[in-house]
Amino acid sequence: xxxxxxxxxxxxxxxxxxxxxxxxxxxxxxxxxxxxxxxxxxxxxxxxxxxxxxxxxxxxxxxxxxxxxxxxxxxxxxxxxxxxxxxxxxxxxxxxxxxxxxxxxxxxxxxxxxxxxxxxxxxxxxxxxxxxxxxxxxxxxxxxxxxxxxxxxxxxxxxxxxxxxxxxxxxxxxxxxxxxxxxxxxxxxxxxxxxxxxxxxxxxxxxxxxxx
Length: 212
What we know:
Elements: E1 3-10, H1 16-35, E2 39-47, E3 54-63, H2 66-72, E4 75-80, E5 93-101, E6 116-121, E7 137-142, E8 148-151, H3 157-173, H4 179-196, E9 201-204, E10 209-210
Parallel strand pairs: 4-9
Antiparallel strand pairs: 1-3, 1-5, 2-3, 4-5, 6-7, 7-8, 9-10
């Protein structure tokens, strides 16, 4: 049975070394997904402070076993490596976070589609020929709480609607009722919590090889 999920990899407020780790981890997860027979596409990347570094990357996963792959990679990931950007820097541990988003399961969520209003928008930002030609982006608003989630990364409005609903369900599940006022603070706080937790995977060195 084919499944659809998204993986969001973020450096949070980490330095450029964490952003390099995002770039390396995105490549690793892409290769692993393809090996498992999944369709994997980079939907969006946000450039970081150094060349080749990314603040975040959003991947789409589709195929049988996508949910299992995504959930196994959800959490914090540690990269142990002397800084390739600051040779005299003492720190060697760099953390990034991975979040999994799944399409809305109407039978297992507090979010009801009837409580959500959708607004189509023109896509903006990265996307090449798909940008500004169709109103494929979607803004989803949860009427009871006022929470808002947008999606513009997918190429069709139908897919962006699914992604926006997944993000909205995630906000509700996390109890972020003050997300409109504290979205940035909450995101960084979540990243800090990931750093203190036990990493689900650890990679080492410039070659980004996994520790076994």
